[in-house]
Amino acid sequence: MKFNKGLLAAFGLATTIMFTACGGGGEQKDGATKAETTIKIGATPVPHSEMLEEIKPSLKEKGITLEIVEFNDYVQPNIALNDKELDANFFQHEPYLNDFIKEHKEMNLTNAAGVHVEPMGVYSKKISKLEELADGATVSIPNDPTNGGRALILLEKAGLIKLKEGVNETATVNDVVENKKNLKITEVEAAQLPRTLEDVDISVINTNFAMNANLNPVKDALFMEDKTSPYVNIVVVRKGDENREEIKTLINELHSDKMKKFIEEKYKGAIVPAF
Questions:
Q1: Within this chain, do residues 128 and 177 fall inside the same structural domain, yes or no?
Q2: What is the reported pTM?
Q3: What is the domain extent for residue 40?
Q4: What is the count of structural domains for the chain?
Q5: pLDDT tens column, 124-170
Q6: 200: Cβ–Cβ under 8 A, 6 or more apart, which residues?
């Protein structure tokens, strides 16, 4: 039997289209198709990226592929999110976000959910307790406004300085009204603080950067924020995207009992769930 070549080609194309329509989205157990979505989230390596890696499999089961883009600074993740290179980011607390938006009013970013607290700590390679701190000792703190103020508040709680009454996380070195040990305070980019430990007597370091430098906050910090810290780390999205179903699913996984157990077992008090 002879076939019309044009008819055969048309039949083959139709069959291909039918197969693609039926099977392109991935099959569920009942034979129905499931749409797959990829969401891209920016994060600092420790602990944020580690936490996101933990929920990758469960998100995959729900049809969501999670792509993690790692950053080692506190500026680029917000810029990339605003420029739609990311769907979300996970690295900052709300005071930092609010301060960032004040400086970048064109950015339409918002807090989608709080996840955990990373208590800030005081570290040293030269002394084993704060009582050993000598007169004129050197101190490094973060140079961004909210984390710098947070570090100064921690130094005040440790009894090393006194700040002007009424200042909050916006405190600066100019707000120090009492400095009995004549501490010399230097402001440094947050990610670089662990490297300053060879040169300064003490450094006030964010937990994520401390852990990334193999410092154990529970064992190595000379003084730490307590669990009542208001600096909850948050997932940030562009305004309106907090209502996207895949973002809601991401938040649900980060707020799950499984994640709480992961945080408690892996970080052993260095990081505290906030949900």
A1: yes
A2: 0.80
A3: 34-119+231-273
A4: 2
A5: 999 999 999 999 999 999 999 889 999 999 999 999 999 999 998 88
A6: 138, 139, 140, 186
